[in-house]
C-alpha cells in the first residue's frame, strides 16, 4: 500500500516563496539598473528659473526624484508581468505546486520586491541630492520634502511601497490575461489607452481625475493604505481566478 | 489499489482529438510502458495525469483525485520530459537542493551519487547542458524524488547508448528497492521490454491494448510460406501484418490462437513459424489505413 504524502497548502506556499527568493534574484538586479537609469535622467533637473536685478543674479534649478519613482513603478509592473510568462510558470511545475500555491507565492514575492523597490526608490532620492551636491560644486543645495520629519518620511516610504505593490498587481493581471490568449498583447493596451482616452473626455465622469482624487488626494494615510491594499487584493483575486483554469506545458 | 483511472477521457484540440474516449486503469506498483506512434496521445495523457492539462471530457482520477490543480497529486507524482523547465537562475546543485526540500521521499544519496557518476558539475546551469546531459539530469531528479507515481516521457532522448543502458539498470534497481508506479513512454520498446511489466499501446488517442509484457510477446505469431499454402489456414482470420517477398512467398503476422492440430498441419505443409517481438507487434498494430493501402515501397519505387 503506497502511503501518500499529505501536504498543506500553506507549507507549499512557504517553500515556493523561499525558492522564488533565490530563483528570481534577477528581478532585483534589474531594479538597481532601472533606478540608476532614473537617477541619470533626474540629473537633468525638472525646471530652471533665472532672475537678475541690480547686479544680483539668481538662478534656481529644480531637481526631483520623480523619475526614479516612476521608473520603479514601471519596474514593478514589468517584473510582475514577467513572472506570469510561460517559462516562469512552468518553473513552479518542476516542483510540488498547484495554481493557487504558485500564485500565492508569487504574490508574496511581489510584496517583498515592492518593499525593496519602494525603500530603494526613496533612498535614491537622497543619493540624487548627494550627486547633485557634487555636480554643482560650491553652489547651495536646498532640500525640500525629504527632511520634513520622521513621521512624514515614514508615511512617504509606506505609500511608495504600497504603490509599487499596486502597480505590480496590475502587471500581474495584465500578464495573466495575455497568457489566456495572445491577442491580448495588442488588445489590452488598445483597450486601456482607448478607454482612458474615452473616459477622460466624457463630461460627467472623468476616470483619470477620479483615480487621482481617489488615491492621491486622500489625506488620511490609513485610509489611503486601505484603498491601495484593497485594490491590489482585488486585482490579484481576479488574476488568481483567471489563472486557475490555465494549462501549462501545452 | 488503482493509481490511475481514466474513463472515456477525451482531449480535444482544434481539428482533432489527441485522446479519444480513452479508458484505462493502472494498478499500484507497476512499471508500465506507454507505447505508440508519434502523435498517438502519449504525452497528452501523461500531462493530464500530472495535472498540467485538463481533459475536455470524461473522467480522470489519480490517487482517486482529479489531478488538475490537486496539490496531493502534485506532491505524490513527478513528470519528467525533455522540456523540463527548471528555474534558470539556479545551478544544478541548487536544483537538487530545492527538489529535496519539496519531495518528502527524496533520496539524497542516490541523487548525489548519480550526479557524480554522470560527471555533472555543481555550478553548471541546466540550460547549458547538451540534450543528452539534460535528459540524464532530469532522470536523476525523477528517480531521486521517489514519488508514488513517476512519469517519464521519452526519458532517453539524446542519451547515448551507454547512458541509456545505465538508465534502464538504475530504473529497475531503484524500482525494486522502492516499489512505486512508474509510467514510461518510449519509442524504443525493445530496449526496455525486459524491465517493463505491462504495456499500454495507444493509437490516435485510443487504447489498442493493455496487457502484461509476457502476454504481448505471446499474442501474435509470424507465418512464412507460399501464399497458396497459407491462404486456407487464414481464411477466417484478419492478418495483423502482411509482407510479400520473393516468388509468391508471404510473411503474415496473426493472432497466436491456432489449435495444436492446425499447427501440426501447417508444419507438415512447410510453413515456418516465428515469434513476433513486442516492439514489432506494436508497430504492426498501429499501422494506419493509409499506410496499409500504399506501402512505403510503392512511394520509393
TrEMBL record, chain A:
Q: Where is the signal peptide?
A: none
- Entry's transmembrane regions: 21-43, 63-85, 106-136, 156-176, 183-200, 220-242
Report keywords, A-Z.
Membrane, Transmembrane, Transmembrane helix
Descriptive protein name: ABC-2 type transport system permease protein
Q: Which species is this UniProt entry from?
A: Halobacillus alkaliphilus
Automatic annotation (TrEMBL), chain B:
Query: Where's the ABC transporter domain?
Result: 4-229
UniProt GO MF annotations: ATP binding; ATP hydrolysis activity
PROSITE patterns associated with the record: ABC_TRANSPORTER_2 (PS50893)
Q: Which SMART domains match?
A: AAA
Gene3D superfamilies documented for this protein:
P-loop containing nucleotide triphosphate hydrolases
Check the record and name the InterPro entries matching this protein. AAA+_ATPase, ABC_transporter-like_ATP-bd, ABC_Transporter_VariousFunc, P-loop_NTPase
CDD domains given for it? Answer: ABC_DR_subfamily_A
Q: Which is one Pfam family of this protein?
A: ABC_tran
Coiled-coil spans are none
Q: Which UniProt keywords apply?
A: ATP-binding, Nucleotide-binding, Transport
- Protein name, entry field: ABC-2 type transport system ATP-binding protein
Whose protein is this, by species? Answer: Halobacillus alkaliphilus
